[in-house]
Amino acid sequence: MNRQIVIFFLIIIGLTGAVLDALAQQRPVQSLYMFDLLLVNPAYAGRDVQVSATAINRNQWVNFEGAPKTSTLSVHSSFFSNIVGVGLLVTNDNIGIHNDFSAYGIYSYRLRLARNHYLSTGVQGGFNNLVSDFDLLNNKSPDANLSGTNTVIKPNVGVGFYYTFKDLYAGISAPYLINNEVIDLENVTTTVKQRRYYYIMGGYSYDVSPVVRVKPNALIRMQEGSALSIDLNTNVFLYQVVGLGLSYRSVEGFVAMFELKFTDNFHFGYAYDITTSDIRKYSNGSHEFMLNYRFKIRKAHEGVPCPTYFK
Hints:
Blueprint: H1 2-18, E1 51-59, E2 69-79, E3 84-95, E4 98-114, E5 117-133, E6 149-165, E7 168-174, E8 181-183, E9 192-193, E10 197-204, E11 206-209, E12 212-223, E13 229-238, E14 242-249, E15 253-261, E16 266-275, E17 286-295, H2 298-301
Antiparallel strand pairs: 1-2, 1-17, 2-3, 3-4, 4-5, 5-6, 6-7, 7-10, 8-9, 10-12, 11-12, 12-13, 13-14, 14-15, 15-16, 16-17
InterPro entries: PorP/SprF_Bacteroidetes
Organism: Shiella aurantiaca
Protein name: Type IX secretion system membrane protein PorP/SprF
């Protein structure tokens, strides 16, 4: 076990060095992302083997006017003896006057490198539909250039790599590679563009007793021209039924997490973000809810072992 932990940290350090020149501001990332890694890496598609559908709703910075509200729905499954994964990721993100709806199809291919060593490569493609309603602005001096509705539909593509060795995983991804121009108003020289960003992730799970399983994991978010963001998380699972977790997020603060398995098919998750930055003066933190449902397709998944939800 100690050797595998060392390997895990060496992988994280190596991946960090490979892209350290890119600086980051994260796009919306749910606090419960570790239970739905398809949100950050297309190469994860199919890694749950059976069909896995996850809905997450996040209400960030409660009581803060114009604060982000994000909803995601992901569905993915493996096929052809767990070699191919396909998935769909739909997101609706609302921040102030801006509403960003996106839909992406995902494909992954799993390659066996050696015994218990696997590398998955994933690609995704789709579009973002950004609608900005400038009439919602409270302008004391109305500006004709900042009125009406601006709608932009832009395609995008992404790529990811996901490595597993027994109970250890590590990955790197760039889900949106195209730096699209998303707001361009007439008679205004400044435009708003998306910036390419990267995720580095890793985790390891192990049993400390017959009833207790521990899973430390980490996520590094990097976006061109912005500051680095890091999540360090530890989850403890009891009797494969209840999960409790604590996360540290740089700049933002801490996250408390709760997981509950109702049945082998149906799971519930909740996270509460405890903000430690100056925004805590105006907000009561952030709430996030998750529902996950899994089921097998007899012909596609027969004879293929499925990982447990808390693994």
